[in-house]
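Feature request, filed as a ticket because there's no other form

It would be nice if the structure record came with a short human-readable summary line next to the tokens. Right now we just get the raw output. Example of a typical job, pasted below so the devs can see what we mean:
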Amino acid sequence: MQGNYNEQERIARQLEAVEGRFEELSIQITRPEVISDTPLFTRLMREHSELSDLNELAVRYRKLLNDLEAAREMLEDPELRDMAVEEVEALEAQLPELTREARIALLPKDPDDSRNAILEVRAGAGGDEAGLFGAQLLRMYSHYAARQGWTAELIEDGSTELGGLKESTLLIQGRNVFQKLKFESGVHRVQRVPVTESAGRIHTSTATVAVLPEAEDVEVEINPADLRIDTYRASGAGGQHVNRTDSAVRITHLPTGLVVTSQDQRSQIQNREKAMRVLKSRLYELQREQQDTEYSNRRRLQVGTGDRSERIRTYNFPQGRVTDHRIGLTLYKIDEIMEGNLDEIIAALTLAEQTALMEQNG
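Raw output as currently delivered:
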């Protein structure tokens, strides 16, 4: 009992600090000298946004503790004692769950969780079937984004005439996009009978997914002299603008050799802007890997490494089964999942990460 009380006190102090910081930020972001300093304003606005939910939780926790203290004081009044007993019991029943919620919310955060995400899907082993499966994954993530109230915009359209893809890229924008999609990086394996298979044999194919946090302009500086920008006529499986104008853009970052293309928009300017967003995000990812030791530590704590070579999930169509190998989760609802109902999988992965963090942080 004493241990629970000490934990509640510790959490209350941490949440009090959150409330103080949130109030301080609310004042700072209204000051003219801060607003005129774009990098500073951007950083403070992000921190303010990231603390918003935690601040609401802090207010609820403080109110519950205050109400509980007031109800316990009422126990001393004989006329109010019966009512106070019921009130104390009701409030004490709420405290363990809210304490657990607060403990999870106070765990160390990946600072990129609140960002938008660049999601890339590439066909892997399996020829045309791998491309068809990749296209299904792209559609699955687009549907999941819609379910979350996010927007998913195609930046690179690598579709093929068969309806598959070679490599396609989505920009997904919304609240805490990277936080939910970061677990999707890795090799996705499919087992099914391809439509081209006359003998009815089950084939195994793969597609690779990479999820990057979108970088902001103030975080990645690119020297224009380091870029080679080529324009060419868009090509693909369809679209009225295909092969009519030199609207497609290919940007090569010479120091790193990174190449980004965009051809989904009619305008060359729009395609260039989209390609630059992807390039900045890839360079930001490189910076994190090379310079941020905390990033490396977080990666080790996450469920899986996020490495492109790691097989993370199998989609078995004959059995209607989807298995996430990192946490041993198997769901027999493949049709729902392919329609973008990823909530159960992502919730389980998030819980596994939170459990690992709580064990590490005592």
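Something like this underneath would help us a lot:
The chain has ten helices and eleven strands.
The chain has three domains: 2-105, 117-214+312-360, 224-291.
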